[in-house]
Amino acid sequence: MVKKRELKGIQLLSEEGSIQRVDGSNFLVRSKTDSTKWYEVKWQRNRWACNCADYAKCGKKCKHIYAVGYYLAVKGIAQATKSLSNERNCPKCGRDDLVTKRGIRNNRSGPAQRYYCKRCKKKFAGRTAFGGMRNRATVIAAALDLYFRGLSLRQTSDHLWACYGIKITHAAIYNWIKRYVQLVSQYVENLTAKTSGRWHADETLIRVKGQHMYLWALLDHETRLLLARQLSWGRGGKEARALIRKGLEASKNAPEELVTDGNPSYSVAIEQEQKSGSNPIIHIQGPLIKGLNNRMERLMGTIKQRTKTMSRFCSEEGASNFAQGFGVYYNFIKPHRTLNGKTPAQVADLRLDKSNWLELIEEAAKNDCVKSVDSIQVKKDRHSGRVVDKESRRREE
Q1: Please, which of 163, 260, 280, 381 could form a disulfide with 266 given CB 3.0 to 4.6 Å?
Q2: What is the pTM of this model?
Q3: Which CATH superfamily is domain 198-314 in?
């Protein structure tokens, strides 16, 4: 549920000229009741502060601070929703030097430009990754960006309506997340990174259907790349080893050291890995070396802050979609100050030219990930309530 101050901040943002940027950490926000009065919002001591009476009295985020926060988010979305640069490339030959426009086709997704390749005699349309969608590609990318920047599904829906006049239900936004997170994840999971000799591992609790599940994460020390993540109901050696195996598959080299907390499951997992013939790993275990695992603790703090917005997940599928999408956002979209404004993927030489949802979705579509996503015909199991595809149902029967 959107807070009253937060909703007023969204309304302030929708008014033209209500926010002026003085410099990188100072903003002026116009008063809602008096158009001649401006409030100053500054970044002080790792938090936003305002000189209005509400902030001085309560010490909490006021509507002016919320307006500045949404202003910065919208600025990031503007970069993520720029026009597609490679939509003229012929899907058959991959070139655009002999491609000409061949009219406009109107469909549920909106007007789509048609193209014709004189070399291959191929007719095709742009925005293939968003075919069949009722809303524009930019709106879908904006919704994904807002959600993984910290808004809940209903907050994202309210924001699109208040600022852009686009009415989208929270259920439709969830379906977008489910579809395109799976699409991008299938593509990026095939990439392998060159990592450092030290990895960090940890797990945290999240609420799923009123119960606790463990969200595991494996982080590289130098690049801050989130190598692997997984959800499980247990917290034993089996789950810890599965996390390490995922990290080894995502990396070109094995680690020399693994830094963890006091959970003994990691020791069991490392011992099992070494018995299977893997390279020896030095296990640096807490709690006395808590300072060595501060990078992982920072990541877990970000995850907890993000999941606090939604309070709980209604299904295991929803939690899995979030974990997948957060991994993509953290590695490929979110710039890190400690990396000089670069993303972990850029530092790890995974990708240097794609840094937003729109471009990642289009790139995944070019690698035929759309077909694999569309081939899975998802349906609800009436008896168990689980989501299964045709192949899984056939194996079960």
Answers
A1: 260
A2: 0.66
A3: Ribonuclease H-like superfamily/Ribonuclease H (3.30.420.10)
Which positions ≥6 away from 252 have C-beta within 8 Å?
192, 193, 194, 195
Provide the terminal-to-terminal Cα distance of the chain, rounded to the nearest Å: 42
For the chain, give me the number of helices (H) and strands (E)? 14, 14
Q: Pick from 316, 297, 298: which is nearest to 212 by CA?
A: 316
What tens-digit pLDDT sequence spans the chain (397 residues)?
A: 446 788 788 888 777 788 888 876 788 999 888 888 999 998 887 778 999 999 998 888 898 988 888 787 666 555 444 444 455 678 778 787 788 888 766 544 445 678 889 888 888 776 556 666 667 778 888 899 989 988 888 889 988 888 777 888 999 999 999 999 999 998 888 888 888 899 999 999 999 988 999 999 999 999 999 999 999 999 999 999 999 999 998 888 889 999 998 889 999 999 888 888 777 888 888 765 556 788 888 889 888 888 877 777 888 998 999 999 999 999 999 888 888 888 898 888 876 566 788 888 888 877 755 555 554 434 434 333 444 443 333 333 3
Pairing, β 211-220 against β 226-232: antiparallel
Q: What is the dihedral of CA 112, 139, 25, 355, to 10 degrees?
A: -60
- Quote the tokens at residue 192: 């392998």
Q: Please state, in angstroms and as integers, the Cα–Cα distance from residue 391 to each residue in 18, 192, 379, 395, following that order.
A: 54, 28, 12, 6
d(CA 142, CA 156): 9
- Hey, where are the domains in the chain? 1-77, 198-314
CA distance 282 to 48: 42
